[in-house]
Amino acid sequence: MLNLRNRVIYMKHLRIGKVEEYLLNKLESGEKIHLLLIDPEESTSQEASLIASRAEEVGSDGIMVGGSTFFSQSQMDDLVKSIKSAISIPVIIFPNNITSISRYADAIWFMSLLNSVDHYFIIGAQSQGAVLVSQYGIEAIPMGYLIFGGDTAVAAMGRALPLPMNRGEVAACYALAAQYLGMRFVYLEAGSGAEKPVPPQTIRAVRKAIDIPIIVGGGIRRPEDAITSLKAGADIIVTGTIAEESFQRCREIIRAVKSFRA
Ligand code: 1GP
Predict the structure, then answer these.
(1) Nearest to 38, CA basis, from 49, 30, 27, 28
(2) How many structural domains does the chain have?
(3) Nearest atom within ligand 1 for CA of residue 243
(4) Can you give the residue range of the structural domain that contains 56?
(5) If you measure from the C-alpha of residue 64 to the centroid of ligand 1, how many angstroms do you get, rounded to a whole number?
(6) CA distance linking residue 148 with residue 193, whole number of Å
(7) From the alpha carbon of 241, which atom of ligand 1 is closest?
(8) pTM of this prediction?
(9) Residue 111, pLDDT above cutoff 60
(10) I need a surface site. Which of 28, 122, 149, 244 has the fewest CB within 10 A?
(11) What's the chain's average pLDDT?
(12) Beta 139-147 vs 236-239: how paired, if at all?
C-alpha cells in the first residue's frame, strides 16, 4: 500500500515533464492542439526552421521531427538544433528508430508501434534507446502508436499489420490496451501522405473507449478534415505533408484547430 510519502515518489517516477504538462494544460483549458511534423528527408535545416517559425507565428503548439525512412543521427541533430534556434514552442522527436534520438530536442514521443508484427518496433528499439534518452535528459512521453490503412511508408517500414480504417472496435481494443499499459497518449496514424485520414467513426469509437488524449494524423489536408477529427474526439492534430505542399493551406488548418471549441 502506498503511503503519502511513497505516493509523491510514485508521482515523480511518472516523470511528467514540462512538454507534457504544457500539452495537458492546453487540453485542460479546452484548447485543441496542432503539431507540425517536419520530415528530415523533405527539408533542409534552413527550410525546416523557416517553416517551423511560420507555424509558430500562426499558432501551432509544437514541432515534431521524424520520418519513416530517415536514419542519420547527425543530420537529425543539425535539423533539431536549427529548428530550436528559430522557435520557442517545443520540439518533440517522432522517432522511427534509435537514430532519431537527438539530445537537442525538448521531448521524445516514447512510443510503441502496437500493431507491428515485429518485436523491434514494439519494444526492441525502445529498449535500445532508453538509456540514451535518459543520458541526454530528453523528456520521454509514453505513447501508443497505431497504424491504419496499408499503402504508406510507415506501415511498410514499421512492419505493421494495419488496422482497418472502418472497424473502430478493433482500434478501440488496442487503444484501451495502450491506456492500461500506462501509455499517456494514443496516436491514430493513417500514414504520411495517406489518401484519406482516419475516419471520424473510428476516432469516435476510440474516444468512447479511453480517457487519455488522442492524436490523429496522416492525410489531413483541409481544415474540414481537422474539424471532423476534432468533433469525433481527437485532441491533437498532426499535419506534415500539407505544409510542404502549401503553407497557406497548413495555416488554415492551424487556425481551424486553434479556434475549435467543442
Ligand atoms: C505522419 O501523421 C503524420 O506521421 C502526418 O501525416 O504528412 O499526411 O500530414 P501527413
Answers:
(1) 49
(2) 1
(3) 9
(4) 4-256
(5) 10
(6) 13
(7) 7
(8) 0.96
(9) yes
(10) 28
(11) 95
(12) unpaired
